[in-house]
Design goal:
six-stranded mixed sheet; elongated
Length: 380
């Protein structure tokens, strides 16, 4: 359940207060109070510049091309060429304790063209050797590339990336949309190693609410150098945002929306109701769409409650046919000018999101599952 195509605005300031706590493993609710105190403020990431030497001597592959890319696999950093497999280069303009990717390709004398992607844990001043080991049994590759240097971090990353390859999971910009990629990431996260690389994998997932206690515990167990890494700081700020949810919604600033007939959302139209159930979804998220047909059945028995649907779709052509076909009453598409503010303020990193609010914007429940909704309404 990931919210794609949106980036949360970076709000980095203050200092992170660290207090030791003991938390449960199964509920993201039972330790929220302790987490709120522990992760009491947002914290800024302080990047540290790094450069390192990388060398290789890999015969029988012709000239080898190496594209160095950032941890998002999109941003290009530099291009290297290992002529006849020989490389000796220094790479600058990187950040220490972050991940980069080497997209490596060549022409093997026996097997022809090959291409492999190798993650690299950046260590300032390190000397890395790119080596080609014999491939595992059954592999069609001419060799398995690995990097000497980087210690436990590098070994962890390479085991993860080779597992992706063996399971034929594409390690690409949008790979996180594949369920098997998520499952493999979670398998490595659940090793619970307090490494920078583990927090990198967590940053690739958007399931912080579902694993709030586990991720928080892992963070507090990590060495200080790991806590200060880009990916651990990102997690700490996620936890802060989750545990410091707003208590009210200003409908004049966020969740401004319109119907498929371009009629505006007017909160005053529901002033006769005691509660509003806000269902925030998008047409691209299958699990969010799957609940649309059942929500009305849950809410309709409560006369003092109105059900409102808010879509984060960016194109009316994606949203309107679906909401019209299903005949959804009180269905709105969030306006473009307040969509990002809605995402930021309500921290909409996972969909669907169910809130219960009063017509004046007071939040009664800020994060319910579909399964919790009926019981919660009955208790109001």
């Amino acid at each position: 359940m990931k919210l794609r195509n949106y980036s949360l605005k970076t709000a980095l300031f203050g200092a992170l207060v660290f207090l030791f706590f003991s938390c449960g493993q199964n509920s993201d609710k039972d330790s929220t109070g302790e987490l709120k105190e522990t992760f009491g403020s947002l914290t800024a990431y302080q990047a540290q510049p790094a450069s390192f030497r990388i060398f290789s001597q890999i015969p029988g592959n012709g000239d080898i091309s190496i594209a160095v890319k950032a941890d998002n696999r999109r941003d290009f950093i530099t291009q290297l060429a290992a002529l006849s497999g020989h490389l000796d280069a220094t790479i600058d303009d990187l950040q220490a304790n972050e991940i980069c990717f080497l997209e490596i390709s060549g022409m093997n004398d026996q097997t022809g063209y090959w291409r492999q992607v190798l993650p690299l844990f950046v260590v300032d001043g390190a000397e890395f050797e790119l080596v080609a080991d014999a491939p595992p049994a059954g592999s069609t590759e001419p060799h398995q590339l690995r990097i000497k240097g980087g210690g436990e971090e590098q070994q962890f990353l390479e085991e993860w990336s080779w597992a992706l390859y063996n399971q034929a999971i594409p390690l690409s910009d949008d790979a996180s949309s594949f369920e098997e990629y998520d499952n493999l990431n979670q398998e490595y996260i659940e090793k619970a190693k307090p490494l920078v690389s583990t927090f990198y994998l967590i940053s690739r997932e958007r399931n912080h609410r579902d694993h709030l206690n586990e991720y928080s515990k892992l963070f507090l167990q990590a060495p200080e150098a790991v806590k200060n890494s880009k990916y651990a700081v990102d997690l700490a700020n996620h936890i802060h945002r989750i545990t410091h949810a707003p208590t009210t919604i200003d409908f004049s600033r966020i969740l401004t929306a319109r119907t498929s007939r371009v009629l505006p959302f007017e909160p005053g139209a529901f002033a006769d109701k005691e509660y509003l159930v806000l269902y925030i979804w998008a047409s691209w998220e299958p699990q969010a769409v799957a609940h649309l047909a059942d929500l009305e059945k849950v809410v309709s028995s409560h006369d003092n409650v109105a059900l409102l649907y808010f879509s984060l779709d960016t194109r009316m052509s994606d949203w309107k046919p679906l909401t019209d076909k299903m005949g959804l009453e009180n269905s709105y598409m969030v306006r473009a000018e307040t969509r990002q503010a809605s995402i930021d303020e309500l921290y909409l990193t996972q969909l669907p999101r169910i809130l219960i609010v009063r017509p004046d914007g007071q939040i009664v429940e800020h994060d319910l599952t579909f399964e919790q909704l009926e019981k919660t309404l009955a208790a109001l």
